[in-house]
Amino acid sequence: VIRSSDIGNYLYCRRAWWYKKQGHVSENQTELAAGTQLHHKHGRQVLASGINRTVGLILLMIALIMLVAYCTAQIL
Fold this sequence. Notes:
Layout: H1 4-12, H2 14-22, H3 29-75
């Protein structure tokens, strides 16, 4: 089975891909762990950004509905 991550790893560094397939463990585990932590932090920030955008759009829609209701009440 060939995974897309295998293709990406192979294209990035063929030697590292070969070592991994041979069962060798990378010596830079600290850097790999830091990179994983950075990706998790970024993922949380992206999620929070999406939630903030959704809440902002909901509040905008509520404000527009209230504005239309106010203007309609003033006309009648």
